[in-house]
Amino acid sequence: MIQGPHAIFPEIESAAFDLSDVAVGDSICVQGACLTVTALTRKGFTADVSAETRSVTAGLDRAGALVNLEKSLALGERLGGHLVAGHVDGVGEVLALADGALRVRAPRELARYIARKGSICVDGVSLTVNRVDAEVFDAYLIPHTLEVTTLARLAAGARVNLEVDLIARYVDRLMATREA
Question: How far is the first Cα of the chain from the last one, in angstroms, to the nearest whole number?
Fold first, then answer.
């Protein structure tokens, strides 16, 4: 169990994940949460986890669980997806996953940032939103995504880490300060 205001995350084994260009202090997104590498080990790495990260995530405390991993984008690299920061905003609940259609209920306070054809990260996987109805959204998963991520293992009732659209958060903040 992780203890204290911040704690060292147990070792994350990553045999199939190339760490040859990773150093202590680098960020790696683990299940949607951006974590700082504190040590490189023979099988993977360890990372610090803050109290804030623990309070807004799910699945980082399950020993032996499969997780999605992604290195940070370096400036000047090609952007092949959506703009995401690895800053989990909250935990959603999977309502269904059938025939590549993922249906999730987001926390009410995050629903305002979710828009049809916008982006959302689910457990660190950036997806396009296809439908929104109040707090419930649908995203369709292509076979490649189902094959190379943990999303194919989701079932109704599963808790997932959500990161809403980065630009929507900033626009909301700017509008709030403008109205004040």
Answer: 42
User: Residue 180 half-sphere exposure, CB side, CA atoms within 13 Å?
Assistant: 6
Q: How far is CA 10 from CA 25, 66, 116, in A?
A: 16, 13, 37
In this prediction the pTM is 0.85
Evaluate whether 128 touches 152 at the Cβ level (below 8 Å): no
CA dihedral 56, 62, 68, 70 (to 10 degrees): 70
Model confidence pLDDT, tens digit, residues 107-136: 999 999 999 999 999 999 999 999 999 999
Q: What is the pLDDT of residue 2?
A: 37
Alpha helices of 83-165 — where are they, by DSSP H?
108-111, 143-148
Distances (CA, A) of 107 to 14, 60, 76, 114, 125: 31, 19, 34, 11, 18
Cβ count within 10 A of residue 60? 22
